[in-house]
Amino acid sequence: xxxxxxxxxxxxxxxxxxxxxxxxxxxxxxxxxxxxxxxxxxxxxxxxxxxxxxxxxxxxxxxxxxxxxxxxxxxxxxxxxxxxxxxxxxxxxxxxxxxxxxxxxxxxxxxxxxxxxxxxxxxxxxxxxxxxxxxxxxxxxxxxxxxxxxxxxxxxxxxxxxxxxxxxxxxxxxxxxxxxxxxxxxxxxxxxxxxxxxxxxxxxxxxxxxxxxxxxxxxxxxxxxxxxxxxxxxxxxxxxxxxxxxxxxxxxxxxxxxxxxxxxxxxxxxxxxxxxxxxxxxxxxxxxxxxxxxxxxxxxxxxxxx
Length: 306
Known about the structure:
single chain, 306 residues, alpha/beta, 2 domains, six-stranded mixed beta sheet, 6 strands
């Protein structure tokens, strides 16, 4: 199950439970933060903003009522991130939003970065950590769609993606040696950026000291979502009422980002040949094997990478 960092001088039992749900993105992280915030005994933030971006669910009847402007920087953050503040101070900031049994964050860090910070900062409290995951092929395709959307609104975003892709010249060269692809084309560039960056971050799934939570399950099943709560209940008397689950699942499977319009295999086959090849060479065999162990069907993905 989940791993807890049990260090010397950890918080006594009567102290609140603290948590981080890590994620690389495009895995229903905002939905999960919103759903946790629905619980009367949980204060949850989303994202890596310096000042926790608390989701005030009392202002909205539905997850889909939340305006896009709410996804921007928290007032006072001034572009700074979690990396600019000690984790202990960051967690303590959550208490300004009210008294709770459980305080924490979703999608503020990736797993490997969080582990390094907890250890280097010698954080003297117990932290519950879990990692939110998604079918890696669906996740890459979703990142590509998001990149295109953001690039359509900002030339700076496109330039940033172009700059980051320069750090993956080996992968780009491998694709270009097999296919005549023009990466001056913005759509090609954005897709390659989604593949290269996402695939590298997928390696966190190989860390078996932590529970990896499939977003497809918890967004689609009341039972799976309830089971997910066990990571908090080990250290608190947190309860799950049917009325709470009714609010979370009022619209059925509420999160569109994990409700694919077509099956994963079909979406993969619809990609161009060079795009399929790029994903295959970026997702290592051990990462694919780990996803299969966790219940994902990637049989359509298995093929020669040469």
